[in-house]
Design brief:
By secondary structure, the chain is α+β, with helices and mostly antiparallel strands. The protein has five helices and four strands; from the N terminus they run ααβαββααβ. It has two domains: 6-47; 50-147, Alpha-Beta Plaits (2-Layer Sandwich), CATH 3.30.70.100.
């Protein structure tokens, strides 16, 4: 007697049928748009979903008064209520067990919808007043900006 398993034949037939249907449907274009027009529409939609992230890392000078650090935290957190171009804001303290933070303790994440919004934020008087708080207490700062990529 042969080792024919009917369920294997059904699985093979189902897979083959799905491949044919998928191939047929992918060739149909009921909207009558060219594939180029569809790609442009998708690109516009994907671009509108992207956000500009402004990452700021602070390393305070040794011996900085904890009250001064708290003042920085509160002042930075107040910027979104003063600068409408800020879409979102969050911050936190380093808690990585890897010990690779190189002394940076604070991370602030500011989100913008556009480079134009960031361009308004950077010289904004409220932002500049905040920067003035940092002059005597920061040992180092790192800023890294990037666009999110919702496709990944």
């Amino acid at each position: 007697m042969s080792n024919i398993n009917p369920s294997n034949n059904i699985k093979k037939c189902s897979w083959f049928a799905m491949a044919i249907i998928t191939g047929f449907l992918s060739g149909c274009n009921p909207s009558h748009e060219s594939s180029t027009e569809q790609n442009v529409n998708v690109s516009a939609m994907e671009t509108s979903n992207r956000q500009l992230r402004h990452v700021v890392l602070f390393k305070f000078k040794p011996g900085t008064d904890p009250a001064a650090i708290t003042q920085v935290e509160v002042a930075f957190a107040a910027l979104p209520s003063k600068i409408p171009e800020i879409r979102d804001f969050e911050w936190g303290l380093n808690n990585s067990p890897e010990d690779l933070n190189k002394g940076f303790t604070h991370c602030f994440l500011v989100t913008f919808d556009s480079e134009e919004d960031r361009a308004v934020y950077l010289p904004h008087p409220e932002h500049q007043a905040f920067v003035g708080l940092l002059t005597d207490i920061l040992e180092d700062v790192t800023v890294f900006d990037y666009w999110t990529d919702p496709q990944l």
